[in-house]
Amino acid sequence: MTLYIGNLSYQVTDQDIREVLSEYGQIQRLNLPVDRETGRMRGFAFVEMSDDGQEDAAIDDLNGAEWMGRSLKVNRAKPRDSRS
DNA sequence: TTTGAGCGC
């Protein structure tokens, strides 16, 4: 499953996210989208995790939690638009 | 700062 994490601080790095999310399961993939033109983080992330049943606990725990001075928004990610 | 790429006619 893939987790969507929004409202991230610009200071957050992929390693920070790994640290936190690894408590709830094995991280398969991490994606931190940046604005293609400005190179800035877009303020959210996607974390694909092994389906071991703890992802929902991660959502419960982290959604609304304060992290790096911001309130996280954690959800199940929606599939990305594919452009065959 | 809230759903991912890339980017040509």
Question: Tags for this entry?
Answer:
single chain, about 80 residues, alpha+beta, Alpha-Beta Plaits, 4-stranded antiparallel sheet, globular, DNA-binding, RRM domain-containing protein, RNA-binding, Nucleotide-bd_a/b_plait_sf
Characterize this entry briefly:
With 84 residues, the chain is α+β, with helices and mostly antiparallel strands.
Helical fraction equals 10-25%
| Strand neighbour order, sheet with most strands | 2-3-1-6
Number of strands: 6
Highest-level CATH class? Alpha Beta
Q: What Rg, in angstroms, do the CA atoms define?
A: 12 Å
* Uncertain parts: none
Per CATH, the architecture is 2-Layer Sandwich
Protein name: RRM domain-containing protein
Organism: Acaryochloris thomasi RCC1774
Pfam family, one: RRM_1
Domain RRM: 1-79
